[in-house]
Specification:
- It is a single chain.
- By secondary structure, the chain is of the alpha+beta class.
- It folds into four domains: 151 residues, Reverse transcriptase/Diguanylate cyclase domain (Alpha-Beta Plaits, 2-Layer Sandwich), CATH 3.30.70; 56 residues, Orthogonal Bundle (DNA polymerase, domain 1), CATH 1.10.150.20; 114 residues, Dna Ligase, domain 1, CATH 3.30.1490.100; 47 residues.
- The protein has 14 helices and 16 strands.
- The strands form four sheets. The protein has a five-stranded mixed beta sheet with strand order 5-6-1-7-8. A four-stranded antiparallel beta sheet has the order 9-12-10-11, with helices on one face.
- A hairpin with a 4-residue loop joins strand 14 and strand 15.
- Helix 10 crosses helix 11.
- The termini are far apart.
- It binds a DNA duplex (18 and 18 nucleotides) through helix 3, helix 8, helix 11, strand 9 and strand 11.
Length: 441
Amino acid sequence: MRGEASVLHLDLDAFFAAVEQRDKPSLRGKPVVVGGVGGRGVVSTASYEARVFGVRSAMSTREARARCPHAAFLSGRFHAYRDTSDRVMRLLREVSPLVEPLSLDEAFVDLARSDLEDLSVPSVTAFAERLRERVVHATGGLTASVGVGTSKFIAKVASDLDKPDGLVVVAPGTEQELLRPMDVRVIPGVGPATAERLRRVGVHTVADLERVSEDEMVRLLGKASGHWLYSLARAEDDRPVVAEREAKSVSVEGTYDTDLTDRKLMESLLTRQASDVSGRLRKHGLSGRTVTIKVRLHDFTTLSRSTTLGSPTDSPGTIGRLARSLLADLDTSGGVRLLGVGVSGLADWVQEDLFGETAEDEEEELPEVEVPHHSRRTWAPGMDVVHAEMGRGWVWGSGRGVVTVRFETADTPAGPVRSYSMEDPELSPWRPDESEPAPPA
DNA sequence: TCTGGGGTCCTAGGACCC
DNA sequence: TCTGGGGTCCTAGGACCC
């Protein structure tokens, strides 16, 4: 905790929805919901017009539709969000070299490293107001809520106090009186589970929490959380603003509209995910030693299995092979709703292959295939898995704009199954009056 | 047809080593 | 017959964040 309010937290208001409203004037003033539009999608961001109807982040899209049927439901344009976010982060870096992005729409800025010499409350307030105006200008009209305080914790709490389009500067020395009446959930790290544990011992507010001894807190919540909460309850937070943080893991996962039961299909999907992970590792010059798969069963139980190599890899073949072998040990007979692949234990170098590049280490090229028009019509966004005959292969559709084509060639009836996915925005919308071909046997 | 995706951090137990 | 103790690595699961 510093002597002056020099930590700034900026949060773009209803960011994804605001970008959509900026780019599509017809959506302005109307409820907009960005998130998964499939059968198992959840809301990522709701515009303030949609929040009036009780639509919230992390709510299932199904429920959001029930609450606000007339909202525009959009699946998101991440390039546009990334682009707008970059503009904001660039602007913040003009203000201070020490900017810590937390996500596309949030960042801490260390004002102690800015050109602002006078860190008094009036000076910081005027500075933050100017910054908010510059954000509006830089983004083509998006507003931001800003909080400033003597620590990250206080700055973040402050930015939340006057949303949207607000500014709160917490004067040094007033932190505890601000926090005491607040719910314990304002403390970062206190989620539903911790809040429930605290509630059971009669702790609801930060003031309640302040009365609990450090030993008691550690007994209740474990070492790390106990000490952490003990400090934050007293507004003690010395975490520095850190500009560069290295990635610790890279992962890809997907939830399917219909539970998967076909092991061959699961293996195909893992293979595809492994290649996506590999691509992202390579793009950033990374490789990792630990490969993990994540499997969520039909009843939402979530399993993970991992294995660690002697040296790091970024090879799609290696990652895919390990992922498939980890899956082999799991009982998925009840159906699988989510599959994922991740790599951790990252190093910014790849082990030199002492024996030279081996061909089998790379996944073989998947075939380029033309998806015939008749199969496109059978695809439906958010619908159950769709099967369509297609020459010697057949098409499975799952998830918006993604078609997975799977081949079982006539000459190798029991041979290897290969698959690839393609994204095709033209595949929607689905026209329900059109008949579907029968699924393959 | 409740419950995304991409992350981080923590805990606890077992293996293994000295 | 006894059965310490610290450190590190690995695995699995869970809580949490945006």
